[in-house]
Amino acid sequence: MTRATSVDDHKLAAAYESLREVLAASKYADRKDKPLAFWALPGDRRLPMALLGYSLKELLSRSLEELSATPGIGKKKLSSLIKLLHRATKDHPPVVLFTDETAGKTKAAKSRGGRGGPSSRSGFDPATVSELLWEQWRQTIRRYGLEHETLGRLAPSLDRLPTVIWRTPLDTYLDSTIADIRGLKTHGEKRLRAILEVFHSIHETLGQVPRQGHLRVDVRPNFTAPVERWVHEVVGRSQPPSPAELKQRVILPILEQLRIDAGAEIFRILEERLGIKGSPVPVQQQAKRLGVTRARVYQLLEMCADVMSVRWPEGEKLFLRLHHKLGSFPNAKTQVARLRALTDLIYPELRDTPAAPPERSLEANHAKQNSPRTEGSPSRQSASHQHQRNKNGAPVRLAAAR
Predict the structure, then answer these.
(1) Beta pairing class for 96-100 and 123-124
(2) Are 231 and 254 within 8 A, CB to CB?
(3) Could you report the per-residue pLDDT of 62-88, keeping only the tens digit for each?
(4) Measured in whole angstroms, how far is the alpha carbon of residue 315 from the centre of its chain?
(5) Which residue from 186, 133, 121, 185 is spatially nearest to 159, judged by alpha carbons?
(6) 69 and 101 in contact (C-beta within 8 Å)?
(7) What is the full DSSP assignment across 317-371?
(8) How far, CA to CA in Å, does 173 sit from each of 1, 40, 119, 192, 284?
(9) What is the rounded distance in angstroms from the CA atom of residue 221 to the CA atom of residue 352?
């Protein structure tokens, strides 16, 4: 044995004994039954694989000499063991890293109170998330009773979340480890990254919120509260809002959210369609610019309704109230038309709703529901669900003549 080797062995043994002494304290009793793998990150190298399944209690009951006698455990693996035991002494997990895909740089955002994480366009790196960190995020979901919220409603961006899991409740993954999720069918790294990003963003928002017994935290998409307050204010007014106010307080905030969730291409189509920067652009002209059919443009626009049905389904009733209120003002025809143009895109079920006060509208709906239906006439369906097939078999939305 060389002198250098004996010195390295002595350092390893001293570090191990020091960590054994620290972890023997009663304050660490809550983690002694957890396996060593609990503190391992997917990006760690030279992990002591033969020891990852043992609990801290089992490992710390053995000397370093006994552990080194385990097949496949050499000096490098013992060094990794020391690193994992050191992590076990920390009350908080390692930092979560975000890779800036445009600049090729790496940003570190602490697991508590970090900034510039999922809300930006930087890529979430699941290789930096340990089981310990994942457990903390799940505890935050349970603490605030968010189990039945969907991934899509609370995601930083629906554009980065696969559409098939937009409506998946958070409790689908609350009892699973990261390893369990990786083992699920169709849950590759892309889907895992999206799921972890949602949980992380919720934890970042709520992790530092002090809990008060007489107060409740209402978790919802950020853009909804200002719009909702303004609509309630307008409903109580005796004069209609100006077209500019309607645009600033309702139309632009919702378009900005659709830019985040549906992407830049659909956002530009919406801007043109609603005439945000000028006169509204016809669908035919948009199709020509994009080099696609009119049916394809309508399909892209249908994404807006899909987004809002996940992000803010309760907004439909609010828009109905606003529509009725504006319809009660004889001098608000411009505002009604602009609101109608937006509503047709984000809440198509409200299409063809008469611009009348709620009382008149309810009477009309009641009469319509109780009127006899002609034999063979189909019930009215939402235009967003009326489809036909083109020559290639792709669904095409049936749109009214424009």
Answers:
(1) antiparallel
(2) no
(3) 888 888 888 888 888 888 888 888 888
(4) 18
(5) 121
(6) no
(7) HHHHHHHHHHHT-TT-HHHHHHHHHHHHHH-GGGTT--SS-HHHHHHHHHHHHHS
(8) 51, 20, 22, 11, 44
(9) 28
What pLDDT, in 10s, does the model give residues 353-401?
Answer: 665 444 444 344 444 444 444 444 333 344 444 444 344 443 333 333 3
Phi and psi at 371, nearest 5°, equal -75, 145
Global confidence as pTM: 0.67
Distance CA(46)–CA(203), nearest Å, equals 30
What's the token pair of residue 144? 């605030």
Please state at what angle helix 264-274 crosses helix 252-262, rounded to 10 degrees: 150
CA dihedral (259, 265, 267, 268) positive or negative: positive
Q: Choose the weakest-confidence range: 216-230, 239-253, 296-310, 356-370.
A: 356-370
Pick from 242, 232, 398: nearest CA to 334: 242
